[in-house]
Amino acid sequence: MVGHPEGRIQKICSFLRKNFKLLGFNRAFTLSELLTVLAVIGVLTGLLLPALSAARSRAQTARCTANFRQFALALPLYAQDHADALPPNADGRAEALGAKWVEGWLGLPGPDCTNTHYLRQSLLAPYLGEEVQIWQCPAARPVTVAGVTQPRVRTVSLNGFVGSPVESPAARTYRRLAEIARPSETFSFLDEREHTINDGSFGLQWAFDPTQPALWVLRDKPGTRHWGGAVLAFADGHLETHRWRDPRTLDPPRDDAPSPGNPDLLWLQERATERQGLK
Fold first, then answer.
1. Based on CB atoms within 10 Å of each CB, which residue in 76, 96, 258, 261 is the most buried?
2. C-alpha–C-alpha distance, residues 231 and 71, integer Å
3. Is there a contact between 207 and 252 (Cβ–Cβ < 8 Å)?
4. Quick one: pLDDT at residue 79?
């Protein structure tokens, strides 16, 4: 049971009197002096907490960026060892390792959400030092889905058009590193939202028409943990932290959803693949 506020204040007074006497201060605190001290402490706390929170956010972004640098370096190393082939990147739940570069379905609660074995046996694991911590953004938190709260052991996904087995006239897919004509403008890995991540392929709308914004659909969702943005690695090895602009990207639904005119979708599509009408 919580005591009366005046009783708690008297206890604080007693504690301060006792400890200040030990330090050589003999005069007792008055209640008004104590309240003044507490007010000053409250003001200082209010000033310091935002600064400490911002510093922690910057540190998490720096760590996430360092993790993505390792993935950015791993991609060309894999291609070098596999006759320029990119890691296979099938989109779906059933495909096994070999059809996809990393196993594990994190879309629903279950053992895959915390299974680090899939990360250690990933096709890129030999180029990542078999580290498992780098697969999860340091700012990621456990999420609740269907009433079950679990962390997600992985928040990294590979651009769904990179390594895809799909042949489509709607968009270009890349099987070899040399096929990426604009490596500095084509992202490879992306920090995905932990609430909605499923497989290791970051899926975007296939039938995307830049001239028909009313028909745009938000499929997989990018992370928003870094000041409302996500870290991305590009095929040439450079990294970017991009902030999203549209509220529908910042707080999206779990499933695929229409997102007419969403500028974040256009930004992602322009840096994911080549298709008619895109830059």
1. 76
2. 12
3. no
4. 98
CA 40 to each of CA 49, 211, 251: distance values in angstroms, whole numbers, following the listed order: 14, 58, 37
Q: How far apart are the first and last CA of the chain?
A: 65
Task: Give the separation between CA 47 and CA 242, rounded to whole angstroms.
Answer: 28
Q: How far apart are CA 11 and CA 19, in angstroms?
A: 12
**186 CB neighbour count, 10 Å cutoff:** 21
**Helices in 98-237 by DSSP H: which ranges?**
117-120
**Contact of 260 with 212, CB cutoff 8 Å:** no
**Amino acid identity for residue 231 in this structure:** V
User: How confident is the model at residue 277, as a pLDDT?
Assistant: 73
User: In the chain, which residues have pLDDT < 70?
Assistant: 1-31, 33, 44-45, 47-55, 57, 279
d(CA 20, CA 10): 15
178-192 pLDDT tens trace: 999 999 999 999 999
* CA separation, residue 199 to residues 8, 168, 219, 220 (Å): 53, 21, 13, 10
Give the Cα separation of 209 and 251 in Å (integer).
24
Structure tokens at 4: 């009366």
For helices 31-81 and 5-22, angle between their N-to-C axes, nearest 10 degrees: 90
Contacts of 192 (CB under 8 A, 6+ apart): 155, 156, 157, 202, 220, 221, 222, 223, 230
214-267: pLDDT as tens digits: 999 999 999 999 999 999 999 999 999 999 999 999 999 999 999 999 999 999
According to DSSP, the β-strands at 156-159 and 187-191 are antiparallel
Matching residue, tokens 């042949």:
167
Residues in the chain: 279
3-class secondary structure, 168: strand
